[in-house]
Amino acid sequence: MQRAWHVVDVADRPLGRVATQIATLLRGKHKPAYTPALDVGDYVIVINAERVAVTGKKREQKMYYSHSGYPGGLRTMAFKDLMARYPERAVEKAVKGMLPKNRIGDRQFTHLRVYVGPDHPHAGQIAANGALEAPASGSESSS
Fold first, then answer.
1. Residue 63 lies in a domain
2. pLDDT in tens, 85-102
3. Is 143 inside a domain boundary?
4. Where do runs of H (alpha helix) occur along 28-121?
5. What's the pLDDT tens digit per position in 122-134?
6. 28 phi, psi to nearest 5 deg
7. Which range of residues forms the domain containing residue 118?
8. In the predicted structure, residue 135 carries a pLDDT above the cut 70
9. How many domains does the chain have?
């Protein structure tokens, strides 16, 4: 099975829209040989994660929650704080939530590489395999 490398530039694109495209590439649903029980997806490189867009008031109001398992162990972090400290994690969390909640989903998530700026260290894989650029938007009809 040949895995392709895709480069996705998320600058000024809505987080949820681009996360669905990334999850589709990671799962391999764009391939004719797609099988839900097998990991047939491709590698995805995400660049410019710090410039991802969110609509409405989500930048100030969206919260991420985690719990330690201990009483009083609920931790919250606002989207704007997450973007200030770890901009790549917003994209990772959005994509992870769209993958299967099992071992296959965990393995598919390891094929995701997210980088804050436009530079990434995977030029060799792209040159060898001929990376594909993910589409900038869902439909680009000129009618």
1. no
2. 999 999 999 999 999 999
3. no
4. 58-61, 79-85, 87-96, 103-109
5. 988 887 776 666 6
6. 90, 20
7. 5-54+86-133
8. no
9. 1
Q: Which of 37, 16, 34 is nearest to 107 (CA)?
A: 37
- Tell whether 115 is covered by a domain: yes
User: How many residues make up the chain in this entry?
Assistant: 143
Q: Does a structural domain hold residue 38? A: yes
Q: How many CB atoms lie within 10 A of CB 28?
A: 22
Distance in angstroms (rounded) separating the CA atoms of residues 89 and 40: 24
pTM above 0.70, yes or no: yes
Q: What share of the chain is helix, strand, coil (3-state, %, to 5)?
A: 35, 20, 45
Domain CATH number, residue 41: 3.90.1180.10
Helices (H), the chain: 15-27, 58-61, 79-85, 87-96, 103-109, 123-129
